[in-house]
Amino acid sequence: MSIPNHAQEAQDRYFMMLAIQQAKQGLYTTRPNPAVGCVIVRAESVVGQGFHPKAGQPHAEVFALQDAGASAVGGTAYVTLEPCSHTGRTPPCALGLIDAGIKRVVIAGLDPNPQVAGRGVKLLEDAGIEVTVGILTDQAEALNRGFLKAMRTQMPYVRLKIATSLDGRTAMASGESKWITSAQAREDVQKLRALSGAIITGSETIIADDPQLNVRSTQLCVSADQVPTPKVVVLDRRQRLQYDPKSNYQLCRQSEVLYWREDDLVKLLKRLVSDHQCYDVLVEAGAGVAGSFLKQQLVDELIVYQAPCLLGIKARPMVEFSPLSLAQQLRLDICAHEKIGPDLKLTLQPL
Ligand SMILES: NC(=O)c1ccc[n+]([C@@H]2O[C@H](COP(=O)([O-])OP(=O)(O)OC[C@H]3O[C@@H](n4cnc5c(N)ncnc54)[C@H](OP(=O)(O)O)[C@@H]3O)[C@@H](O)[C@H]2O)c1
Ligand SMILES: [Zn+2]
């Protein structure tokens, strides 16, 4: 592995950015596989590019090498994740790069699985290829939060989404909550769902709202039927809900819904990774469930859609959480803010 000089690094960053743009095309469709992009460069020009579109289909490197054809010989490959070294449904990409005559490989980040990290690099280096690792690593990792966290910790990346009023209210005391935020904000939530392997909700939300919790947007970069359907999980310790083809609740008419009857949310999250390969989990529920996830420090990212309206003190709070002193407060860091239609979208991380 070599450390790049500054001019080389600027060029590497540029081409890696193009590889990340390629990877983004698979963002909603590759689950449970990571979104990966590859760009082949020869004499400072892009001669081939590709991305991994779907589990079971060829990896990004295969498409990029096909695109480049004979121009790949002597070229540099930019890949957003370490090329694979094992024979799965497709032959190892590291060997594909070697066979195509690639001279140098630039990788944003190593394979996160500690048992396999570095093996792709070793195969390439053993074949005499120069390998550079660590270009735009943060941007590339941002594409695959769930996959990377699950490979490293066997826990999924958890996003908690809450729609609130300006005074932090999430529903009227009666349970009425359709709709606090705008159609544009709800359209944006479709992207969060499309990223998620599983969506967790609470029994009270089903009873109050009868939600669909599906991906139905027409405004994603791919059509909604290309997006693998997120697994819906209903938290229901008192067993008030179950599968019933004649149920009044639309989710209860679907046999694939998982009902979680236990109190242990860590066990559920681990189970979603090990049994269902759900690496990105979205919590869309009321204040009760939201409070439980936050209090147990299970939230990686909180996404708040805040509408400029006031619902008053009798309306439901944002999270059921009652610290007794300021010292017990839960503090978060604002990572991003954006106006979506008339509403504000805040992305936060618990400190
Ligand atoms: N603004 C928004 O973003 C938004 C989103 C969704 C819903 N809502 C509104 O929120 C209201 C419902 O809120 P809610 O707080 O009553 O319901 P909720 O959080 O959706 O569900 C609460 C139920 O989940 C079950 N549960 C299972 N495990 C739990 C755990 N570890 N922690 C907490 N609950 C657990 C509990 O029933 P068991 O004891 O039987 O397990 C509990 O009664 C509705 O009016 C809905 O319209 C708003
Ligand atoms: Zn591969």
Automatic annotation (TrEMBL):
InterPro entries for the chain: APOBEC/CMP_deaminase_Zn-bd, CMP_dCMP_dom, Cytidine_deaminase-like, DHFR-like_dom_sf, Eubact_RibD, RibDG_C, Riboflavin_Biosynth_HTPR
Pfam annotation, one family: dCMP_cyt_deam_1
Pathway: Cofactor biosynthesis; riboflavin biosynthesis; 5-amino-6-(D-ribitylamino)uracil from GTP: step 3/4; Cofactor biosynthesis; riboflavin biosynthesis; 5-amino-6-(D-ribitylamino)uracil from GTP: step 2/4
EC number: 3.5.4.26, 1.1.1.193
Cofactors named for this entry: Zn(2+)
Coiled coil: none
Record-linked Gene3D superfamilies: Cytidine Deaminase, domain 2, Dihydrofolate Reductase, subunit A
Domain of life where this protein originates: Bacteria
Any one GO MF annotation of this record: diaminohydroxyphosphoribosylaminopyrimidine deaminase activity
Cofactor, free-text remark: Binds 1 zinc ion.
SUPFAM superfamilies found in the cross-reference section: Cytidine deaminase-like, Dihydrofolate reductase-like
CDD domains: Riboflavin_deaminase-reductase (cd01284)
Keywords: Hydrolase, Metal-binding, Multifunctional enzyme, NADP, Oxidoreductase, Riboflavin biosynthesis, Zinc
NCBIfam families in the record: eubact_ribD
Protein name in UniProt: Riboflavin biosynthesis protein RibD
Protein species of origin: Psychrobacter coccoides
Gene that encodes the chain: ribD
